[in-house]
Predict the 3D structure of the following.
Amino acid sequence: MAGVAVGETVSLIMRACRIEYLRFFPPLLFFVLFSCGTCAAGAQTQPPAALGAKQVLVLHAFESQAPVFAQTDSGLAKVLLAGGVPLQNQFFDSLDLRRNPDPAYRRVLLEQLQLKYRQRRFDLIVTIYPEALDFVLNEAQSLFADAPVLALYMPADTERPTTDASRRIFWHAARLDFQGTLEIALKLVPAAKRVFVVSGAHEVDRRQEERARVELKPWENRLEFHYVSGQPFEAMLTTLAGAPPDSIVLLLPVSSDVTGKLFFSPDVAQRVGQASAAPVFGVLETSLGRGIVGGVLYSFEHVGASAGRLALEILRGGPPSGAVPSVLEVSPAPRFDWRELKRWNLSVEAVPPRSVIINREYSLWERYRTEVIVAFFVLALQALLIVSLAVSRAQRQRAERQLADQLRTETLLAELSARFIHLPANRIEREIQDAQRRICEILDLDRSTLLQISEDEPDAMRMTHVHTPSETPPFPARMNMRDVIPWSVEKIRRGEPLIITRLANLPPEAARDRETYQQYGTKSLVAIPLFSEGAVFGVLSFAATRAERAWPDEVVKSFRMVAEVIGNALARRRADQALRESQARLTLAVASADARLWEVEAETERVWMMEQGRVFFGLTLNETLTLDGMTNFIHPDDRESWRQCIRQALKTGQPMHTEFRIIRPDGTVRWFVAQGRSHVDVAGKPSRLLGVTIDITDRRHVEERLRTSEALSSGVLASLPGHMVIVDRAGRILRTSDTWQAFAAGEGALDPTVLAVGAGQPQARPRAAEHAGPVVEEIQGGIEAVLAGTQAEFRVDYAYPTRTDERWASVSVLPLRRPEGGAVIYRQDITLQQRSRLEAERLRRDLTHVGRVTTMGEMAAALAHELNQPLTAILSNAHAGERYLAQGAPPLGEIREILQDVVGDARRAGEVIQRLRGLLRKDEARFLPLDVNQVIREMAALVRTDGILRNVGIDLDLATALPRVRGDRVQLQQVLLNLVLNGMEAMGPSGEARRVVVRTLHTDAAVHVAVRDQGPGIPADELSRVFDTFYTTKASGMGMGLAISRSIVEAHGGRIWAENNPDRGATFAFTIPTCPPEPPAA
């Protein structure tokens, strides 16, 4: 009986709430829209990440439509959002305790809160009015046990509760400015002698009146106070209507009168302002513009903002409750209504400075106030009556339609459930389409769609069924739902139904979903997920596109039942399709692998075999086959092992695996592999053996060819003169030649290639490089470059020490041509080749020196003349000095000049000898940066005298700013001497003056040097042979000069050639690479 009574009580409460909801729906809608707007604006500010996970619950003591709650919530929500608490973590709930004081309601309310919030842990509870705090500390003590409480609008004289000493409670009381309001009222109405104080009978109202009596006591000696709170509200209005002209009205908060009738402050202010015969002053901002002149007004929104700032401090971990002031600091502001000031003929000049005055404009309302008010109320009453009648009629018709729709829906559900239970899989598609059509017709819906998750694209959904009786934008047959409706997809993926009454009610994070729904004309929607084995595989949706509509619980419940029926049918069809596909795949796999399924009964040893196997053995379909009969097809060498393997599996129940040969009826022998697994009966004993046999004859042949190929590869590796290693992409050794291991462990332990390759462990190579120097690092870098594909191949020659001598080796790294990558490293000893090369180099140096000596011999006359000149001058100067010294008083100045000439001539002779020594010295070549022009000038100084004797001039046409080359000075001078002397000799003796021109220029990355003569030139058929060894055109020549010059130029990395001039003579030219540019200084 108690349960029935509670149920009836809850039903009455819900009906009352629905009536009150309809009554206060317009202001509630305005508040919701305003809150959404402010929240959207606030959401653009990125909150600090530190409070992003905090959750705050705000509990209203009374109904949520009260202005105190709406405006407090607005200020609180804005500050919390700006401080980092997202909207989805702010929860607002109205306890509605004023209209429902029944204890049964409080118990039901607690159950509802437990159901709603038991999975959440709040970091702060904000209560508004004492009743909410009392509910949290008593009924809901266990629900919100650990959360701190911020109590707003508490009576100033109320002591803090001590029921829970561990809970942190922050205590705040709002103080209304009664004194300030009365002072302003007396300034505006200085002749006032009476004050009518209007207050309510609710406990909160009584407390405010008691405090007002105390604060207004100082004026009792000059004013007459009349408190009318003990009267019904209508009686209050009558009293105020008869107020004398020297009166003012002070309006305090009125929540209810002595009859228990509930009021809101805007309505009270409006009615008091209309009925009062005296100007009305108030203390609440919500009354402004509703009939009061003004006053020092208290703002609930400012209270909410201050509470929000304190809440942020609490959420960040401070301050302690003792540091919080007992009075919530809100800066009141004098505010007035221009219309009320004009109505009561009050002076605007008497208004305090910086006061806010609203409605300050001359409008039609001010001119025709009475007429407009009367017309407004008449029209409002008429409209209210018409709307009331229309709503009543619409509600009755809606209830009748809902009842009829519900009856038809339940009939349809019963019919669908019975039809889909035994429906064949091939008829499910058509029946689903018909069910969608009938539901849309019954419930007057505009569209029904069924989407299923694609198996190959989990983020995409494929539309399999759609019914659209109305003209709506077509849905694409396939779309990526995570891109177009991400918020909705997340809810569906979690298995939650999606119920959308109005697109405007979607949360901010569903902005992309709202755009998509608007694009396809959706105004309201219900989407129910479809499940198969606990996982979501699709969604069934019903939508309204012509107008928005609500979705009652009974309709959503019907949709759930339809979705369950259709989901089960689709799951059954999926299972049936999966089974057929599995059987098809099995058949295809068996056919593709040339496999033969078989079964052996343990008791009778009868053998069942697929038709493919019977045809293979030449058996008919009806011919009985036993294990012993099968033995006749097995090769004699394999029969016993085959029979024991099968019988052992039948006896022990263990899996079997064996390879054997079969002799076909035509005499051919084939290799097979058989695998089987025992099937046990209820007693746990093997009852039969199931298996498969696969022909592996081709595999056996391939394995034999692989073994032959492996033997051939091993033979090739063993025949190589060097050592070979094959590594994979990571540098690990895959294979080596037979000589590698012995070489690496013995003579080649310190070989750089061995150290670079390591033991197949790339991480060991850097340590090896520390002991072997840059050669190992160079080889490692080459291996890594080839493995990475950045270098086609790598090769380097190097020397390495052994226990007896120094040896030379060459290593080559080539990529391994296969998809897996890798490299082939081949190391070969080149000591003999290197020694031969060094010996050849030594012989070339000796030959070069011989060439220089020979050249100097050819220049002996010129060199003698070159030395004779300074020596003759020295001798002449010495004789002159002797003559001066023989005089009695020798002229010292003349003697000094003679000695200076002697020193200069001696220096000239020394320079000639020094140049000769440099050319005749037999040293190792030293490659240093050289100025080619300076080398040419030094060479020209050597041959100048020889040219004079031959009547041949030497012209130097040298380029400026020529880059340096890296070379040996002596060898390059030898080349130049050889070419210049050859040019002089080619011109022969003649009476006319002739010239040899030496020219330099810079081409690309080299210096170009050309020696041009005016001789007879070189026969065209002999141009290609002039640089060959022992080829000469001179009667007494050996044919070595130009050959030596070519070897010197090539050793410098250059090239030398000869060509005939267009007019006369020949030109010998060569190039030398320039030095690489020096790196910039750090």
Q: What stands out?
A: The first helix runs from residue 2 to 23. The first strand starts at residue 56 and ends at 60. The radius of gyration is 56 Å. The CA atoms of residues 405 and 442 lie 6 Å apart.
